[in-house]
Amino acid sequence: MYYTPPLAKLIEQFQKFPGVGPKSAQRMAFFVLGMNHDSVKGFAAALVEAKDKIRNCSHCFHLSAFDPCEICSNQKREKQTICVVAESRDVIALERTGEFRGLYHVLNGLISPMEGRGPDELSIRDLLGRVQGGEIKEIILAINPTIEGDTTVLYLSKLLKPLSLKITRIAFGLPVGSDLEYADDSTLSKALEGRREL
Amino acid sequence: MPTYSVRAINVGTFNLGEADKIITLFSAERGLIRAVAKGARKPGSKIAGRAELLAVNKLLLANGKSLDIITQAEGIESFKSLRNDLDRLSYALYYAELTCNLGQGLNQESELYFDVFLKALRQLCQAGGNYIYHCLNFQLSLLDLLGLRPELDSCVVCRKRLIESDLSVFHHELGGAICNECFSKGNVEGKGRRSVLHLAETGNNYRHNEDLSSKDTFSSHFTYLTPLVWKKLILAAANYCAPAHHNVQAEVIDKALVAARNLLETYIEHLAGKKMKALDLI
To answer: Do both A36 and A134 map to the same domain?
Structure first.
């Protein structure tokens, strides 16, 4: 390809993003060249600022520019309930519902022997530390219903059960607007298991 | 695009892009395959449940440029009961981990290994089974099909038939047991690992609270072999499952079984050149 060096460098940088191939990187680079100077400066500054300021909250490990994060420092949140999630983006998904008013704990991954990730690589020890404070009454495990998720849930419940807390896991079943005919057997059986009386 | 169909067990999954997954499959027809499950991470995807680890499916795959693409999937078994018990799930993940790491060498015997793997997963689903024994049996079957079955009947150095009183170590490099004479002569070199059971049977420094499952790195060259562990290996190799004991000896026998499993685990890790992680969860 005959790209002038700064353009080649920009395309190369865009290609580092997940799911971005050479064609998409080229489209993005040309889009940036078409933007006005201030917008490009703002975009670059936003990248640097996010990288500089955002850290893991020392309490819940959620990504935030503050420590403790906005959720942990919010006095209106219920301090007796912790919702355990795998990633920071799961906190954002749950916050979007507006249904949960407690605190979170981000594990930063799931136990996956296939990817060489064991319990020591996650923030499980920190969760136990928070729970042993005595203020927590319920732990909600909002973890994906995959094999890795189930392994993590079983491991966590083994550690948390002796602490006589209420441990729950979010329900699984059919997504809203889906079709029964196309649901697989494990999803359907989970949906049947978790049925509710009307 | 030419297509082919296989019966396969999912032994590894990795995310690809926004919504796809790369799945490592062990198929009865072609051995280890890597294929793309398009849209498997989208909510409501028809293939999501079938793309899960340890699911057994009948698949239709289309030949792709670098990786094949899963075009249709029909579930055969999903082993739901494994998901309720950490021990059983850890064993199943260990089997998948072994298959992922050593499956390439099993392509010639794929049909046979597929049946062994499926049987092992079904055994784990049965409540109240002796999972340690089943694991030992699976490890031996895997080594057998790889052509790396450990030599337990004769000394791997002098070829003399082994007896209980003549045991010394199991040598990972040489792939078998060594007699006392060869070991004491210094015919073998390397660093070794003593299990608690070895210390117990030889009466040296036995500590009850020492963790039997703790292992050194896979780079240890040999493991001290005790008569009880040796017997457990011989019996498992002969496919004989001893009846459950309900006396004082039961605990020692269980420990011997765990030590035998750990020995083979270390041997396999030595062959694979990689530490397996799944059994650490137990």
So the answer is: no
pLDDT tens figures, B219-246: 457 788 888 788 878 777 776 666 555 5
Asked if the Cβ–Cβ distance from A147 to B54 is below 8 Å, we say yes
Distance from CA of B44 to the nearest CA of A (A): 7
- B210: containing domain: 164-281
Whether residues A132 and A69 share a domain: the answer is yes
| Token reading at A37 | 């100077």
Q: Do A18 and B12 touch (CB under 8 A)?
A: no
Residue B65 CA, chain-centre distance (Å), reads: 32
Q: Are residue A26 and residue A101 in the same domain, yes or no?
A: no
| H or E element in which residue A23 lies | helix A22-34
Q: What's the number of domains chain B is made of? A: 2
The runs of H, that is alpha helices, within B103-240 are 110-125, 131-146, 180-184, 196-202, 227-237
Chain A, residues 3-62, CB within 8 A of chain B, namely 18-19
pTM for this entry: 0.82
ipTM of the complex: 0.76
- Which of A 66-85 lie inside 8 A of B, CB atoms? none
